[in-house]
Amino acid sequence: VYYNLKDYEKSLQYAEVGIALLDTIQNQTESAFDALRTWFDKPMAVLLQQKSVYQLQADKSVEFLKQIYQTLQKVVSIVDKRKELLTTHEDQQMLLVRYQELTAFIKKIQLELYNATGDIDYIDGLLELQEDLLYIKLRNQLNLVANVSNYNLPAEVLNREKHLKMSMQNLADNDGSISGYLDAMNQWQDFLDSIKIVFPDYFKLRYIGYGSDSLDYNPSTQTVRYAFVDSGLLAVVITKHTKKVYQLNFNPDLIKRIPEVWNDPQSIGKLTFELYQQLWEPFDSLLTDPAVMIVPDGQLFNLSFEMLTPEPITQFNDFTRNSLLAKYNLSYHYSLWLAQNYSSIDIQSSYAGFVPGFTDQMKKDYINMVADTFDIDKAYLQLLPQPFTVNLVQKISKELHGKYYFYEESTATTFKEKASGNKIIQIGTHAQSNNISPAYSRLIFAKNGNVSDEDNSVYAYEIYNTNMTSNLTLLTACETGSPAYQPGEGMISLAHAFQYAGSES
């Protein structure tokens, strides 16, 4: 409270009293578990202390910043150890809230140290924290899903994983012996070390960031990694020969205004030019190859970078000649840690498209099949038809000699049964991106009169348990669940779910 009131001397005083109190409890308690839990409470007290010290210091020299950074690194080591011990969703959620505040301040200090010294190691550390926070969020979503399966992992390995987690949780809940708990922790670390070697893809998707993993990234494709730090935006541009950092002057309101003027080419052209100047122009000359991978952050997940234009356009046709779409082959990923080349899976079938279409006739048939009008899903009846998506998938399927499932054929059940085993899976539908609980982001499929209201949805948490073996999953979906631009957590969760379930990209 005192910190938020900007009474930093008072907040520092209370932080130091809190640290002293925690030290006293830790030293005097007879319970080894109480001592351990008290140790785990220390990071937030130290964070408040260091934030207060930072605000009270007028001359923020390099040595002063380094001292804060070293103190915070010790705090991170406590949090890292705690990450390994948490097995319930509630505990993970609490850690996430605290870790976000901690990492936000550390990234601020890292950026100031980089600006003062030019040492790129501080930027590498910043990106590692960025990736680690992302994976805490993703693992938190996985923990919501009971009995998550994996199609490439032997049953005995999954059972071992489950057994070790339950052992640690039982020891913690029942206040077992600290020696028994530490032994269980050592067994868990041995398990992680083994799957990291034997099942590296599974380890990357579920456990990357544990232990001493560092951001060892050598891209075969030029990569632009965006990261919000404090109130500013960074772009880290990584090529085969260099890594450069750009601090961008970005106005987030520009993205929010795009839907308001989407049908006016001159207004759109003005916005896309301003966004180009802010998000791309500073490093455009550094990108010498056409292939560029973008790893967005926050609300940048809501932007199609292809539409950025080096000068204002006056008509929509100008996008074909005067845009990033015309100059680059852009691809997207949500993580630097996973944006690596995988050995491609050899799949025989070429393509499968799933397009419910949501025609007016489908909705009439649905109404006629529902016995009780109180059971009618009114939201389903309001979904806009998608005739252009139907036409698109029909053409692609013909070109690639694939198959498609249109209208009433394109149900959630059909999708789960037929999608796997195709080089390309394309889903043309409506979607809802849930940024509060990303595991509940969903894809909407066709209804028939014999299913419940929820049965026409495939949620992100379900995709984790569905075989999606493919080279590429292409999601052509309208976002209908969010009236305003959100950070994009739901979209990240969907992408992670498909990769976890076997889709290479």
Q: What's the overall average pLDDT, rounded?
A: 84
The general outline is: globular
β-strand percent reads 5-15%
List the uncertain runs. Answer: 480-484
| Radius of gyration over all CA atoms, rounded | 25 Å
- Please identify the oligomeric state: single chain
Q: What characterizes the major β-sheet?
A: 6 strands, mixed
Structural class, by secondary structure, is alpha/beta
The span between the termini is: 45 Å
- What order do the SSEs take from the amino end to the carboxyl end, as H and E? HHHHHHHHEEEHHEHEEHHHEHEEEHEH
What does this structure look like?
By secondary structure, the protein is α/β, with parallel strands linked by helices. The chain is built from 17 helices and 11 strands. The chain has helices at residues 8-28, 32-56, 62-85, 89-117, 120-142, 155-173, 178-198, 200-207, 253-257, 265-279, 324-327, 360-369, 378-381, 387-400, 412-418, 460-463, 489-500; strands spanning 222-229, 232-238, 243-248, 291-295, 329-332, 349-355, 403-406, 422-432, 442-444, 457-459, 472-479. Strands 6, 7, 8, 9, 10 and 11 form a 6-stranded mixed sheet that branches. Strands 3-2-1-4-5 form a 5-stranded mixed sheet. Strand 4, helix 11 (324-327) and strand 5 form a beta-alpha-beta unit. Helix 2 (32-56) packs antiparallel against helix 3 (62-85). The two termini are 45 Å apart. The model is unreliable at 480-484 (pLDDT under 50).
List descriptors.
6-stranded mixed beta sheet, 49% helix, alpha/beta, 11 strands
